[in-house]
Amino acid sequence: MDFQKLTIAEAHTLLQAREASAVELTEAALERIVAVDNAVKAFLDIDDEGALEMARAADERIAHGNARPLTGIPLAIKDVLCMRGTTTTCGSHMLEEWVAPYDAMAITKLKADNAVLLGKTNMDEFAMGSSTENSAFVMTRNPWDVARVPGGSSGGSAAAVAAGEALGSLGTDTGGSVRQPAALCGVTGLKPTYGRVSRYGLVAFASSLDQIGPFARTARDCALLLEAIAGADINDSTAAREPVSNYAAMLDGNVKGLRVGVPQEYFVEGMEPGVEAAVRAAIETLRDLGAEIVEVSLPHTSYALPVYYIVAPAEASANLARFNGVRYGLHVEGENVIDEMELTRGQGFGAEVRRRIMLGTYALSAGYYDAYYKRAQQVRTLIRRDFQQVFAQVDVLAAAVSPTIAFEIGAKTDDPLAMYLSDVLTLPASLAGVPGLAVPCGFSAGMPVGLQLIGRPFDEGTILRVGDAYQQATDWHLRRPELAAVPADDE
Amino acid sequence: MEYEAVIGLEVHAQVLTDSKMFCGCSADYANAAPNTHVCPVCLGLPGSLPVMNQRAIEMIAMAGLALNCSINHDTFFDRKNYFYVDLPSSYQRSQYDHPISTAGWLDIETSTGTRRIGVTRAHMEEDTGKLTHGGDGSLVDYNRSGVPLMEVVSEPDIRSSEEAKLYCAKMRQLLVWIGVNSGNLDEGAMRFDVNVSVRPRGTTAFGTKIEIKNLNSIRSVERALIYEIERQTKVLASGQTLQQETRGWDEDKGITEPQRSKELAHDYRYFPEPDLPPLAISEDWTTARRAELPELPDARRQRFEREYALSAQDAALLTSERSVAEYFEQAVTAGQGQPAKAIANWITGELFRLLNDSGETIGVVAARLQPAFIGELLGLIKGGTINGPTAKLVFEESFRTGSNPTSIVDAKGWRQISDTSAVRQFAEQAVDANPKVVNDYRAGKTQAIKFLVGQVMKASKGQANPQLAEQALHEVLDA
């Protein structure tokens, strides 16, 4: 068993055949973490004992013969999901010591399947960022080149899978935070339809956009993870009642006659030639597999970025207002209640979070609401309509995930706008609420490139089928970074 | 120059649901230890999400209908953003420009007739936690956080503190009547904000508006308005001007005072709550809510006047609370044909007096003093079995013990003595024992016979038929 090459589906077969135990898989994951996480720093918190205990319970279940596809599978969880009894920091000093008193619904479901939860992964503070550099704690590195960022905001969860520290992981995607790091780290990542997965216990950034999504090595593994966490939830009124499919069963490798739209607006100025070349080649592969390639247009694509940077910060300004030092999290002493709230928020939040709170507060202010927030919502409707119209012509869209490969650490930290542009190709699907899948489709300058497949609402099955067919025809997703073990430093 | 007040009221009323507005915590926190009716949702913990309480929405819609509002088909929650310790998520889920109900009215009965007060809107929101300021700082209890609340905003149609008082009382009566509010104002079930300005009588432009927030009793509303109207009138009469401001009411000092403006410079930054889908309300749903409403107090009062020939005052007293009205009608129905007016008199007289003394509600007492007992009692009087004074004793005994009047009369041996020979015996005794009075009577002071009747009643332990007693005395004295 080579843990670093194993997929969730293969691991499940080994477990069922008793050729490996959940404890062995978990020990392999923990060993790998010890070996490489000093270099990658994907994790904020690792619970060895807890993980092994879950693994033992999983082995018992396997022995009873009623294992689920994720039973005994070692997974990593973005530190924005509440897990009872563990710290849930959201990558922020504000919640550095906050222990969640309840489980997010996605966690409840994974626990019910006896998956093994290894620990919590690093992220941009409150999921705001595209490089994980906004974490208040550590700098997560791209396993393909530790001088580069893993993308973000779910950089830790993407890097953990890329570095072979976990077989899969959960991240969250608000404007691209699963798809972009998946692409930059060379793993498969899915942002489900808005409402597909309950947000209960996901610490909110932008409520109308946030979705939990899986990372794994293959589209098939993502299908297994999605099926496990998706579904209606009485705790979340925005979780859809749409039935959950057996996504893995839909992966028949056949894309013949499928209409794949290539949106012209997604080949933006500033896109790196190596990225474009890999993506165009991937589209050709789909054509070779029998798909019909159609040039399409989504005319309001260029408005996605400005619309997103009004809607998301506006919602965030309210969502993050609860962090005021009164009941939990950081508390800074001051002269009076108002003074304490101001000091707490000034010290607890990092620069990017403060910037977005201010942007959002401004956009909602009396006298500006109509010009900004209301207008942005109107344009958001147009963007959503673009997708409705294009999906009358084609079954899926294919484009790049990110216009660039992973950039060097620090390269964009002084230029927020350049950083925001990193998500320009993932924002439209987020605003429209439609699902998007990132699959590895080649390399540029030695760094992975991701193909984005965008589908109709609640039609994750089709984009997963295309991703799986593509992965059966290619081996980009099988490539692994050569990562030297780095001994623990003295920090 | 004569001035008149222009007043608008905002009434915040808790909605009597079992659970809170957005979570499953019990909304009945009256005697609970602090912070025991809480969960991630009503504590505003990271990651928690609200889920609407369907019953709360139904009840608020019923209240809107009872206030003659129209129910809007498209309605949704907004977030009202502000920082305060008692507001766990730092925004209150409320409604801004798409309230559930709009454009209704509430009639009040003033000394000069019925006045119709416009209701601008009645919308849904959630309550906040409760702060207690003590010696070593402030404590906050989130048991109240997330309790469903409705806010009713009136048009500026109210013209005096008296009308404001009547409006608040009517609102309380109505909301309690339809089962939406407990009416327990001392437990904070209703709170009031008032907007008041004054202007020269006969003019139509509004004066400078002053807001007084967070009044927690109808009496405070009245007192604060009396004070504030006089204050504003004095300022204007002296040729000075007023500045728009929010003032606080100091209950102990009996005055309003300016509040620090920094605390009030709110820009609430309302925007639609993304965690809750908008509501699409159908005509059928609204019809079902209307069907759920009981006959409303005004309609019932008018029907009582009409159907039972009651005075306006009696009808008003009997419809002050729904349970009283129900009791009255049950008593009439079970009253063996006894006149409604007589039944009403026993309820508004003796029963109200006894309820007042015992501090019980009619709902509790109805289990003992069953409605049917009133007709039974009236029957005993009419049939001559007991006299009026005995009837009061029987009624009180029934109120205390729950026994029916007939069995009380039998058990106590309170049947009226209508046996003429027995009464005559008592009359003779009275005449013999009171020669002075007898002389007075015979000297022409005919009123003296009343004293002798009293003596007969006393000797018979109240059981003699008073008419027979007087008749017997006449016979003895005039013999």
Topology, number of strands of chain A: 11
Terminal Cα separation of chain A, in Å? 33 Å
Tell me the fraction of residues in β-strands of chain A, as a range. 5-15%
Number of domains of chain B: 3
CATH-defined architecture of the domain at 3-258 in chain A: Alpha-Beta Complex
Instruction: Summarize the helix and strand pattern of chain A as letters.
Output: HHEHEHEHEHEEHEHEHHHHEHHEEH
Main sheet summary of chain A: 11 strands, mixed
Question: Mind explaining what this structure looks like?
Answer:
The complex is a heterodimer of chains A (491) and B (479). The longest helix of chain A is centred in the C-terminal third of the chain and has 21 residues, at 370-390. Chain A has a domain at 3-258: Amidase signature (AS) enzymes, CATH 3.90.1300. The mean pLDDT of chain A is 95. In chain A, helix 4 (105-112) links the parallel strand 2 and strand 3. Chain A is 37% helix and 13% strand. Chain A has 491 residues and is of the alpha/beta class. Chain B is an alpha+beta fold and 479 residues long. Chain B has three domains: 3-289, no CATH class; 295-412, no CATH class; 420-477, Arc Repressor Mutant, subunit A. Chain B has helices spanning 54-66, 161-177, 218-237, 283-292, 297-308, 312-318, 322-333, 340-358, 362-365, 372-382, 388-401, 405-412, 420-433, 435-442, 448-459, 466-478; strands spanning 3-14, 70-71, 74-75, 78-81, 91-94, 101-110, 113-126, 130-134, 137-141, 148-154, 190-200, 210-215, 245-250, 255-258, 271-272, 279-280. The radius of gyration of chain B is 30 Å and the shape is elongated.
